[in-house]
Amino acid sequence: MSRRGHLWAGAVSSLLALAIVFGVYELQLRHIEDQRTIDVIVPASFIPAGTLLEEPMLKRRPIVRDAFMEGMITDMRDAANMETMVPLGRDEPLLAWKLTKNGLMPGKDEATFQIPKSCVFSLSSHIRAGDRVVLFVSGPDGESARLFGREIKVASVKSAANVEIDDKNFSHLMSMAEDDRERMYLSRREANAAIDHVNLILKEEEWLAIDKICRRQEHKLVIAFSSALPAEVGS
């Protein structure tokens, strides 16, 4: 090989060595950076309160470990299908206390409406806040039919004294939060106050349909408890 060939070979070898050293350096920096950061789950855009979260609404975002707080969610599965209790800002790390699987807040295009007593023909005594109910309309001469194509979430049920009906020692909602179904059943048995009025979470067109029925005064609502639990029924 000529002198010039040796020089070119030496130059190429030097460049390759520098590239390898630089690559190793970059890998070390990345490894150090990975040790200093942790991925948390954040909203991809602003999310209103009462929204049922889906994975496309969320993304991962690295933050420095020193900024990580207890309660921040790091697993997408812990956030998907949960409901937001407060509004969430874009790129704001999700905190567990801001989410619930048994939310009582109205979602998008929904609101909470109190059903007038004069409009109710029959109301299941086992209904509690957070339950799902099925609505029927009952009319004269056996004219009855189911209302709407979905189950409706109950925001609250109260006695004549305007007090939430529940087990004083261990509430139905607390049992739901802890997924204690046996305790949920017992809380229903132990809460014996009569239901005076019920608040339902409805879409605008659903409330207008109910209001129209009530104004006729010929048809009334039957509010029936559904055996499906909120965590098992899609919104």
Radius of gyration over C-alpha positions, nearest whole angstrom? 29 Å
Strand content: 15-25%
Label the structural class. Answer: alpha+beta
Low-pLDDT segments = 228-235
Mean pLDDT: 78
Roughly how many Å apart are the termini? 77 Å
Principal-axes geometry comes out as elongated
Provide the helix percentage.
25-40%
Number of domains in the coordinates? 2
How many H/I helical runs? 4
Number of beta strands: 11
The SSE order reads HEEEEEEEEEHHEHE
Please describe the biggest sheet, giving its number of strands, its sense, and whether it closes into a barrel: 7 strands, mixed
Keywords:
235 residues; alpha+beta; Type Iii Antifreeze Protein Isoform Hplc 12; seven-stranded mixed beta sheet; two-stranded antiparallel sheet; 4 helices; 11 strands; 27% helix; elongated; disordered C terminus
